[in-house]
Write a structure and sequence with these properties.
The protein is an alpha+beta fold and 260 residues long. It has four helices and 17 strands. The protein starts with a strand and ends with a strand.
């Protein structure tokens, strides 16, 4: 069977998109999804995302990591699926959609920037060496100095597979402060099992973590990731972070057909 796919990227975090509103894609075929995401033997991507029907919102987002397994929320993928939905004429300049961690709202701007509402964060675990929180996906956040030459893949893998997080593991984020509300970020993503050019839930986690430990008092954080720039804003009410938004570009790359 031949299907049409679409490639999008959000600050270098790239995804294969498939319109599965007619339920034609074999969702349980882990090996197929892994092959499609392979950068040598497939299309190549950090993940594969299906847009599907939902009774209560504009559409449903179903996300798979490049290892072929269905995963938790993906922030950059969420921004990109909004751009994809717009191209399918499903939405106009704002939308609500269902993802694995609940309903998200998003706003589209004329310059290709998309602002995505993320889940509230009501628990931030602060340790002497790291911060842990869940922004739709679990994230371990640490501050490092020599971020340019840091062994993100090696050290990230050790933390991801450590006894601290067990079999499920965690994404791992390395942060360097540049100014009061400006940070540099590199992320090791579970499921990809490597550093990615960007991670939306990771950027959200890093921003909230830096506020939680007092590195910034700002509620609007700028983050430089390997693939570009992201912005995270939020409102802090007591110990709860609400009205969390991830803002950045979502770009169409190409479309094609593939035999599955």
């Amino acid at each position: 069977m031949q299907i049409t796919f679409y490639k999008y990227e959000g600050t270098g975090n790239d995804f294969i998109f498939i319109d599965n509103r007619q339920n034609v894609f074999p969702k349980t075929d882990v090996k197929l999804i892994e092959k499609l995401c392979d950068r040598r033997f497939g299309i190549g991507a950090d993940g594969l995302i299906l847009i599907e029907n939902d009774d209560e919102t504009d559409f449903q987002m179903t996300y798979y990591n490049s290892d072929g397994n269905q995963s938790s929320m993906c922030g950059n993928g969420g921004r990109c699926i909004v751009a994809f939905a717009k191209s399918l004429n499903l939405i106009n300049d704002q939308t609500t959609f269902l993802a694995t961690d609940g309903i998200h709202k998003a706003f589209l701007f004329e310059d290709g920037i998309i602002s995505l509402g993320m889940k509230d964060v009501d628990e931030v675990i602060i340790d002497s060496d790291y911060v842990f929180l869940n922004t739709g996906s679990p994230h371990h956040v640490i501050i490092v100095d020599n971020i340019d030459n840091y062994d993100v893949k090696g050290i990230g893998a050790k933390i991801r597979y450590s006894d601290l997080y067990g079999k499920a593991g965690s994404n791992v984020n390395f942060v360097k402060q540049l100014s009061d509300n400006h940070f540099r970020l590199r992320t090791y993503e579970r499921g990809v099992e490597d550093e990615t050019y960007s991670c939306g839930t990771g950027a959200t986690a890093a921003a909230i973590a830096m506020n939680a430990i007092g590195k910034t008092n700002s509620n609007h954080i700028n983050l430089d990731v390997e693939g570009g720039k992201l912005e995270v804003s939020f409102i802090k009410e007591g110990n709860v972070y609400t009205n969390v938004f991830l803002k950045g570009p979502a770009t169409f790359v190409f479309e094609g057909k593939v035999e599955i």
